[in-house]
Amino acid sequence: MKLLNKVAIITGGSSGIGRATAILFVKEGANVVIADTDLKGAEETQNLIKKERGEALFVKTDVSKAFEVKNLVSKTIEKYGKIDILVNNAGVVKVGSLDDYTEDDFDLLFKTNVKGIFLCCKYAVPYMIKQTSGVIINLASIAAHVGQVNHSLYCASKAGALAITRALALDLAPYTIRVNSISPGATDTPMLRSDVAKQAKQRDMDPEALKAEFESQGVMGRWAKPEEVATGILFLASDESSYMTGADILIDGGWAAR
Ligand SMILES: NC(=O)c1ccc[n+]([C@@H]2O[C@H](COP(=O)([O-])OP(=O)(O)OC[C@H]3O[C@@H](n4cnc5c(N)ncnc54)[C@H](O)[C@@H]3O)[C@@H](O)[C@H]2O)c1
């Protein structure tokens, strides 16, 4: 088992990539804490984890609110006494042209996708420093590497996730804390499905045709399964990546290689 007795906080664990990661981490022996705003989704993740004969603590958390993140960290410490792994996965997408996008869209994208990472690191890292060990994995995106039509604010927020990863890797290396990111391409989750439905409406296209366009952007001609991203997150969380920090792994089906 690659994460035996490790304690991992996974934000956004009620759905998609976060859920797949939570299940995989439990299979690898970790104690998992799911932090999400979505109670129902969290319950579904917990039930799937029970089927693997594991259990996960759920702490209802909006990662953009400091007092909720502080509560998440103290509940984790109360139950497990340490934090070995922090997966900053919670994220939102908004589709829009410059005309469509509003100031509220900007605030939502940045407070979730960038401020959320900042707050979770801010309150979890002091415990990692005490332990002189820890691993942080931030979910960036292909959108941090290439432009995407009608995604300017999302792209900018994900570039923020990449940049904070690199900078924190420098700050935290003296404490043996590694900070890396994963950049998924199109991954079949509720987020991507709703993104495609909205874009299809805006571009007056059939959603299936747009899905096919998205699929063709990766040279592999299909979307990733969330589990295919979770294995990358596991690699960065485990000792197998012990000499990696400040790095980003693209799991994009070849999208950026074009
Ligand atoms: N699906 C893709 O194609 C894709 C591609 C690149 C990057 N990503 C990134 O991967 C991560 C996971 O995405 P996904 O596709 O699994 O999405 P998803 O919508 O299936 O899951 C995201 C989860 O984050 C939670 N969340 C949203 N805002 C939150 C907040 N303020 N506090 C706590 N939880 C919150 C949601 O409730 C949800 O459970 C995101 O950061 C996303 O930007 C996804």
Please provide a brief summary of the model:
With 258 residues, the chain is an alpha/beta fold. The protein has one domain: NAD(P)-binding Rossmann-like Domain (Rossmann fold). The protein has helices spanning 16-27, 39-51, 66-80, 103-131, 152-172, 190-202, 207-217, 226-237; strands at residues 7-11, 31-36, 56-60, 85-88, 134-139, 177-184, 248-251.
Ions and ligands? nicotinamide-adenine-dinucleotide
CATH fold node name: Rossmann fold
Order of helices and strands: EHEHEHEHEHEHHHE
End-to-end span in angstroms?
36 Å
Mean pLDDT: 96
- Low-pLDDT regions: none
* Portion in beta strands: 5-15%
Radius of gyration: 17 Å
Describe the structure.
The chain is α/β, with parallel strands linked by helices and 258 residues long. Helix content is 49%, strand content 15%. The chain is built from 8 helices and 7 strands. Strands 3-2-1-4-5-6-7 form a 7-stranded parallel sheet, with helices on both faces. Strand 5 (134-139), helix 5 (152-172) and strand 6 (177-184) form a beta-alpha-beta unit. Helix 4 (103-131) packs parallel to helix 5 (152-172) and helix 6 (190-202) crosses helix 7 (207-217). The longest helix is centred in the middle third of the chain and has 29 residues, at 103-131. The protein binds nicotinamide-adenine-dinucleotide. Nicotinamide-adenine-dinucleotide is lined by residues 11-12, 14-18, 36-38, 41, 61-64, 89-92, 112, 116, 139, 141-142, 184, 186-187, 189-192. The site of nicotinamide-adenine-dinucleotide has 31 residues, from helix 1, helix 4 and helix 6.
